[in-house]
Design brief:
Oligomer: single chain
Helix content: 25-40%
EC number: 5.6.2.4
Strand order of the largest sheet: 11-12-10-13-14-9-15
CATH class of the largest domain: Alpha Beta
Bound molecules: adenosine-5'-triphosphate, zinc ion
Number of domains: 5
Family: Belongs to the helicase family. PriA subfamily.
Radius of gyration: 29 Å
Structural class: alpha/beta
Catalytic activity: Couples ATP hydrolysis with the unwinding of duplex DNA by translocating in the 3'-5' direction; ATP + H2O = ADP + phosphate + H(+)
CATH architecture of the largest domain: 3-Layer(aba) Sandwich
Distance between the termini: 49 Å
Strand content: 15-25%
CATH superfamily of the largest domain: P-loop containing nucleotide triphosphate hydrolases
Shape: globular
Number of helices: 22
Largest sheet: 7 strands, parallel
GO molecular function, one term: DNA binding
Number of strands: 30
CATH topology of the largest domain: Rossmann fold
Protein name: Replication restart protein PriA
Length: 758
């Protein structure tokens, strides 16, 4: 027998090894092993077991490192698919399916050793002052991690071992679980009585669960066509439910059905909506009763230890439900019956570094490999997913109304050009918005104000010469932050103190002032206009710590805050019944970006933010301030008309051959020398033309400077390839990348299905 092993060192490919007969029973896909590599040894993961290998002179595997395996065979197949489709080296793909904290069991082993007090037996033996000190610490804590005891006392392991020899303490392996929500008390909930639309949705999902074929016994290769948008997959549902329509209740009852059938569930949510409120709704439903199970939570703010614990809970089957951000799609759930992707349209599901996977698309692929039922949910589905539903590739489920026949909020669009004409200079709040806020304050109702830009003002601009302070590393304006009077680059983090006068040597005007506005400036203006109102700002500047986020949401829920001002952090998932007014301060911000999805993003953002209003008994109102009030994205959002927006947007995509009618591979050439980058980019285009000659449906555009031409002092040029056959193109690109020669200081990256075109 031979095993194919992906090594943890950056080799870029898998190697075959002999399986010694004494290890035969232990080696399966997912097993971590130590193998010889040249004259050294290396760690690796078995990705496949086969009868024989094409390579001669195989060396044997040295030993098995950790059992049980920390990754399921299906996830390994998913990793292989990632490497192929997203055009990245296999070891990068394999590494991403295992988080660092679980990848190194040796390091973990030491970290997981605990020192604990043993029951006293007879008189205390004679101890050195040093030993007494250590014992004292252990007595106080009863048990603590070995490493922590070492840190606290400065003792080495040998000294502590001597205490163990005297029978006073013992050193034991123990898994201590750090539940980040441990202090929260969770009140169990029971399933709600569903309305007609919800029942229909749950019924369709449960029927699909019952149709799931048993897991295939033999591990066969993933079908090369196992990709979203390929042949019909009756196991994928698109749940299109307006904001407040009760999608979460549908998820909960579908999960219950999966558990009843002995299967687990994975729930993906965007990182920013992975709030305690969301997590609690899942924990509360499954913390008691016959379906009782732990809910594991995975997100990027977990400490290594917490991540480790969550991972093991899943692997040991104690947690049958996993809720997490995009990397949770790799969670080692055994036999998952259901994979849910909430807010499936969210761009944060795309990973912006290699491997550049899209977790929503991986959910569809994993669903096919397991097999498992996949539910993609959103109030504003992506054009890609809705198109798939229209084509019959996904099954569309619709929740057209809010629960309890609550009305959708009334949306008014205010033309800010008029407001600008009637007032001197730029106004932040139109009279309509000001009046509406005042009304809510008088009635004791709550307000959310949304502006998709943090900081105080966009830019520092000189009124006399037009000078704008720009980051020296990136081609963007600095953002002014009031705290500490600093200019901050939101791309690279470069910061400067604010100049007292215009830095332009030919100008020097002291009247330098601020153009545009950010959340800080909105907050300040509110305090001036409504001095008694309790205003709280919520953006990533404020939320350096997760407790802060929870505290603010808690206070808002408790009615201790009247007006919440924030960026897209407050746009989704939040449910506050007392919010009756949502103001969108500047709706055009996302509209004018050089991205074919700009209108789609704007429509989604407006709809989602508007959806925070009127979720209680009182009807909600939304005021949208805009300088382009007649833009379709704004008008369709005003009428809550997703279909209308879809019809008009899909027409534009079709005419210009953009996704979903094609798939995009974006090539970025980066380097510090502008001339060289430009030269290499044109050279690569010519090479690609030769390499891909005869490819019939290829559209190649560029090279062109990226919209964000310079970032972190690198010049960037783009080449865009579009085709309907991306998997084949990715294979061609991989072959081409192997042979392409680049100057040392120029880098090339490939992003398949990019969501960020800047
Ligand atoms: N069948 C039902 N009967 C009564 N209340 C319900 C029902 N279904 C859901 N709800 C309640 O309605 C509220 C809104 O539901 P939920 O948050 O699930 O909506 P949503 O569709 O996920 O909204 P959004 O997309 O805006 O986040 C919640 O408080 C939920 O408990
Ligand atoms: Zn000037
Ligand atoms: Zn910068």
């Amino acid at each position: 027998m031979v095993a194919r092993v992906i090594l943890e060192v950056a080799l870029g490919r898998e190697l075959d090894y002999l399986v010694p007969s004494e290890l035969e029973g232990q080696i399966k896909p997912g097993t971590r092993v130590e193998v010889p590599l040249g004259r050294r040894k290396a760690f690796g993961l078995v990705t496949e077991v086969a009868k024989d290998s094409p390579s001669p002179n195989l060396k044997p595997i040295l030993r098995v490192v950790a059992t049980p395996s920390l990754v399921t065979p299906t996830v390994l197949r998913l990793a292989r698919w990632i490497a192929e489709y997203y055009c990245c080296p296999p070891e990068v793909a394999f590494r991403s399916v295992l988080p660092g904290a679980v990848r190194h069991p040796d390091a973990d082993w030491r970290r997981r050793l605990y020192v604990r007090l043993t029951p006293p037996q007879g008189p205390l033996p004679r101890l050195s002052p040093r030993q007494k000190e250590i014992l004292h610490v252990v007595e106080e804590r009863r048990a603590l991690p070995l490493t922590e005891l070492q840190q606290l006392t400065g003792a080495n392991v040998a000294t502590i071992r001597r205490l163990e020899d005297k029978g006073l303490v013992e050193i034991v392996p123990q898994i201590e679980e750090r539940d980040p929500w441990a202090r929260e008390q969770i009140l169990p909930t029971t399933p709600l009585t569903l309305n007609e639309a919800q029942s229909q949705a749950v019924r369709a999902i449960v029927e699909a669960l019952d149709r799931l074929t048993p897991r295939p016994a033999a591990v066969s290769d993933p079908s090369p066509d196992a990709r979203p948008g390929a042949p019909a997959s009756p196991g994928v549902f698109l749940l299109h439910g307006v904001t407040g329509s009760g999608k979460t209740e549908v998820y909960l009852q579908a999960i219950a059905a999966a558990l009843e059938r002995g299967r687990g569930a994975i729930v993906l949510v965007p990182e920013i909506s992975l709030t305690p409120q969301t997590v609690e709704r899942f924990k509360a439903r499954f913390c008691t009763g016959p379906l009782r199970t732990l809910v594991a939570v995975l997100h990027s703010h977990l400490s290594a230890g917490e991540r480790h614990d969550e991972w093991h809970k899943i692997r040991q089957g104690r947690a049958r439900i996993v809720i997490g951000a995009r990397s949770a799609i790799f969670a080692p759930v055994q036999n998952p019956g259901l994979i849910i992707v909430d807010e499936e349209h969210e761009p944060t599901y795309k990973q912006e570094e290699a491997p550049r996977y899209h977790a929503r698309d991986l959910a569809v692929v994993r669903g096919r490999l397991e097999p498992a039922v996949v539910v993609l949910g959103s109030a504003t589905p992506s054009l890609e997913s809705y198109h798939n539903a229209r084509q019959g590739k996904y099954t569309l489920l619709t929740l057209p109304e809010r629960v309890d026949a609550r009305k959708m909020p009334r949306v008014r669009v205010v033309d800010m050009r008029a407001a600008l004409r009637s007032n001197r200079g730029v106004t932040m709040f139109s009279p309509q918005l000001r009046e509406a806020i005042l009304q809510r304050l008088e009635r004791g109702e709550q307000v959310i104000l949304f502006l998709n830009r943090r900081g105080y003002a966009t830019a520092l601009q000189c009124p006399k010469c037009g000078f704008v302070a720009q980051c020296p590393n990136c081609s963007v304006a600095f953002t002014y932050h009031r705290a500490g009077q600093r200019l901050l680059c939101h791309i690279c983090g470069e910061s400067r103190t604010v100049p007292a006068a215009c830095p332009n040597p030919r100008c020097g005007d002291p009247a330098i002032r601020y153009a545009g506005m950010g959340t800080q400036r909105v907050e300040e203006a509110l305090l001036r206009l409504f001095p008694t109102a309790r205003v709280q700002r919520m953006d990533s500047d404020i939320l350096q710590r997760k407790e802060e986020y929870r505290r603010i949401l808690g206070e808002f829920r408790a009615g201790k805050i009247d007006i919440l001002v924030g960026t897209q952090m407050i746009a989704k998932g939040l449910h506050f019944p007392n919010v009756t007014l949502v103001g969108i301060v500047h709706a055009d911000l996302t509209l004018h970006q050089p991205d074919f999805r700009a209108a789609e993003r704007t429509f989604q953002l407006l709809t989602q933010v508007a959806g925070r209003a009127g979720r209680g008994d009182i009807e909600g109102e939304v005021i949208v301030q805009s300088f382009t009030p007649y833009h379709p994205a704004i008008q369709y959002a005003r009428r809550h008309d997703f279909e209308g927006f879809y019809e008009q947007e899909i027409e534009f995509r079709s005419q210009l051959r953009y996704p979903p009618f094609t798939r995009v591979a974006l090539l970025t050439v980066r380097g510090r020398n502008e001339e060289k980058v430009r030269f290499v980019a044109s050279h690569l285009r010519r090479e690609l033309e030769t390499h891909l000659a005869g490819w019939d449906d290829l559209i190649m555009s560029g090279p062109a400077p990226a919209p964000l031409e310079r970032a972190q002092s690198y010049y960037r040029h783009h080449l865009m390839l579009r085709t309907r056959r991306m998997l084949q193109l990715a294979r061609e690109l991989a072959r081409w990348l192997h042979q392409v020669r680049l100057p040392e200081d120029v880098r090339l990256t490939v992003d398949v299905d990019p969501v960020n075109l800047l």
